[in-house]
Amino acid sequence: MRAALLKSGLALAAGHTSADFVVLNSCTVTAAADSQTREAVRKIHAANPAARIVVTGCYAQRAPEEIAAIGGVAWVVGNSHQAEIPRVLQETMAAELFAGEANSRTNSRTPRDFVPLAGLGGRVASLGRGPAEILVGDIFAETAVPVAPAAAMAAGHTRPILKIQDGCNNRCSYCVIPFVRGRSRSLPPDAVIGEVRRLVDGGAKEIVLSGINLGSYGRDLAPRAALADMVRRILAETELEQLRFSSIEPQDITEDFAGLVAESGRIAPHFHVPLQSGSDSVLRVMHRWYRTGHYAERIALIRRLLPHAAIGADIVVGFPGETEAEFDATLEFVARLPFTYLHVFSFSARPGTEAAKLGCAVAAAAIRERARALRALGDEKSTAFRASQAGRTMRALTLDRGRDGWTEALTANYLKVRIAGRYPANEWREVRIAADAQAVSDCISVRCESA
Question: pTM of the full predicted structure?
Fold first, then answer.
């Protein structure tokens, strides 16, 4: 979005307090995310009442009227129409120019590529609450995967993220994402190769492939493709030094896929595998496609082929009706699996989802206690994994220019390390984790072995 706005002739402001327009990209995966968006709008408006605030993203797609009612919001643009944001701003500027030049009856300063929004598909409505207008369409009609310009992604990012898949065909009972991101759709393989090459030409040494449901990549294409085949093409047809995946569903971690990671040497041994619950009865009500036995087999496969791999998981606590026994089952299941980190979420009812209609809510105090217990277990597993890496020498990519005598870097197996000395960002460094390595925040202090 930033690249498109800059291309349209606008300039980046120093900050929201001096901006004419502020574009706020929203999340709606939890009620807390919605609240943070509303709070951000109010803070921006209080600091700069003259700024026109454009709210886009998933919250904007889900509840546009709710956002339009907030003071300071000029436009609400859903995911369905994000590509039109430059035109939204141009139309706003043009209207102001017309008003400001009414006496002279001239529109000579109208932006050259101004196109009225009236003819666009979707819903454009003035709500009668001042300037706020809505531009939202049918997200399920979307067929493309938007890709940021390579130059824009590379600028300021040591490890650019390349989205090759969007949307989701699953209907997990707690999740609103399919309703705000649409059906699963994939970036064509040739386009993926082209984007990877452009990023590598721009200096990227590691690229993170991402998607809402990355493992479903290619199933919508004709001819049908598979993520593993796409990865093989990237390795064969580009000079990319390291590839990493954002998140892979357990059913997509096959022997072939895990073997590909183990054999390549250019794929980071890092698997983030959503779990959500360690109770089969809860998984069933969540409408997850696997059970704990299946999940455990996939994790065992990873650990067998890649003994030093990072393995993370998402877990939801406090799902409606989750009993103490079901939570204990989750705690026991997580305890015996070789996770290296956990992302723990408290259940948040999302309007329109099946789980929001279930009732039998878990008490807030119980949810907090369960989340605390699971995070404590995650911390223990993270500490144990770091300790298990003592004595190993591995390659790490510097994340930013060093400061205060330290440089932060990331290993292939997702260990964040601090190297003594200052080094430029985006450089490989060979590091050794000593037996007496000290943890600094979420980093490990390591010794640099060579330049």
Answer: 0.88
